[in-house]
Amino acid sequence: MSIPADEMGGPTFFAIMMKVMTSMLEEGVCTMIEKICLMNISNIKGENVSNAMGLLRVAIGRLRNLNKLPMDLTHQLTMIFQTSSVECFNRLFEMVETSVRLQVKNFTYNEILDLAEATYIEFTKRKLWSGVDNSDSTYVANKGDGSNKDVTCWKCGEVGHRSDACPNP
To answer: 87: closest CA among 129, 56, 46, 44?
Structure first.
C-alpha cells in the first residue's frame, strides 16, 4: 500500500487489521453455515449421531457467540436428521419438521439436538440402529480395549476424548 511514512502508525495498522479480521470472520461464518447445511448423517463413519452432535454443537456454539445463527437453523437440523439409513429415525424428524411447519409445536435448536441424541442413544442401546456398523458408537458398551482413540468430544469436536474429560474449557 502506498501510505505516507508518517501515517503508517498505530491507527492505520489497526484499521487495516480490523478489515482483514472482519473479512476472515465473515468467510469463517459462511463456511460453518455451509458445513451445517451440507451435513449428512449417512456420510459420517458408522452413521454415529454422537459424532455429528459434537460437530454441530461446536459449530452452533461458535455461531451463537458471534450472533450469526442462521434463521432457519431448526429446519436445517431436522433435515440433517432425516439423512440416516434408519427410516424410523428419519420419520421422527420428518414429523418434527411437519409439526414446526404447521405451527403445532415450535422446537428450539437445542430441543432438536437433544431429541436426536436421546433417540440415537435409545436406538443404539436397543440395537435398533440398523444398516450400519455402530461399533464406534460412544454408547455401545464394552468397546474392546477401552481406549477413546475414535471417540469425538461433543464439547470441542476433537477426537480422542469424551466430553467429561475435555481438556478444552
So the answer is: 129
